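Weekly structure sync, notes
Attendees: PL (lead), two postdocs, one rotation student
Agenda item 3: pending single-chain targets
PL asked that the sequence for the first pending target be pasted directly into the notes so everyone works from the same version. It is reproduced below exactly as submitted, 279 residues in total.
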Amino acid sequence: MAPEVLTDESTGKTVEIPTGEVYFNEAGEGIPLLLLHGSGPGATGWSNFGKNMQDLSTKFRCIAPDMPGWGRSVAVSWEDRDHVKDAVALLDALGIEKAAIVGNSMGGATALRLTAEYPDRVSHLMTMGAGAPGPRYFNAGNGPSEGLKLLQAGYRDPSPEGMRQMVNIFTFDPTFATDALVEQRSKVAMSRPDHLANFIAGMAHRRGFATMEQVMSITAPTLIMHGRDDRVVPYENALMLVTAIANSRAVIVNRCGHWMMLEHGDEFNRVVTDFVENN
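Predicted structure, written out during the meeting:
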C-alpha cells in the first residue's frame, strides 16, 4: 500500500512555548529530526521541508516548525527574536531530550549556535547553505550578497513580482522556480505584515550568529551541505565550517542553488538519512 500523502493540514499542530504559540508540522516516528527553515519572506517549515518529509518521515520523527517571526507562529520584534532559545523550548514542550538538527540558511545559523551552546540536546548537526563567521574571501566582503539583497527586497515588496525575483536567484535550475512556489511564498508573506515589519526593522542589525570560537567547540557529528552555485550564501562558507568543526564532512553539490532540499531533494534525503543512521 502506498504511504499516506502528507499535507500541511494533515501534519500541522501548535504548541505553546514561553515566546508564544508555535505552529509546526510533524510526521513519522523514531529519532527526532528537527528541520529549521531559512529567513526569506514567506518561509515556513512546510515550504522548506514539506516535500522532504514525505520520505524522511518513514525513518524519523520529523518536526518542521514555523519559527517565531515566521509563518503561522507568534510575531516577535527583531530585538526579542532568539531562535536558539525557542528551538530548545520547542524540544522541551515536545518532550524531546535530544534531536538531530537540519538547518537551512538562517536555520543553519540557529543550528550551529544551538549545538555549541546546548551540546547535550543535539545528536547530529546538519547545515545547508549556512553562513560561517569570519572574513569573506570570494564574495562581497562589505555588504550582502546578490541573493540577500533580493531577499531583503522581497520583504519590502512581497508581491508575486517581487517574490519571483528572489526565487529566481535562490534556485539554479529555473524549472524549480515555479509559479506555484512564487505564489505560495507571496501569499504567506503578505498574510503576516507584522512579520514583514519586524524583519525589516532588524535588517541593519546582525545578531544571533555563532562566533568562530563557538563553531570550533562543536563536537557533534556534523554534515555541511551546500550548493556550488549558491548566490545567496556562497559555498566558501561550507569550506570554512568544515575546516573549523573537527568531526565534520562536507557535501558540495554542483548545479545547485540555495535550496538543495528542493533542487536535489532525493539526494538530500539520502544524505541526511545515511548520515544520521551511520554516525
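Discussion points:
- The chain is about 40% helix and 20% strand.
- The chain has one domain: 8-278.
Action: rotation student to compare against the earlier draft before next sync.
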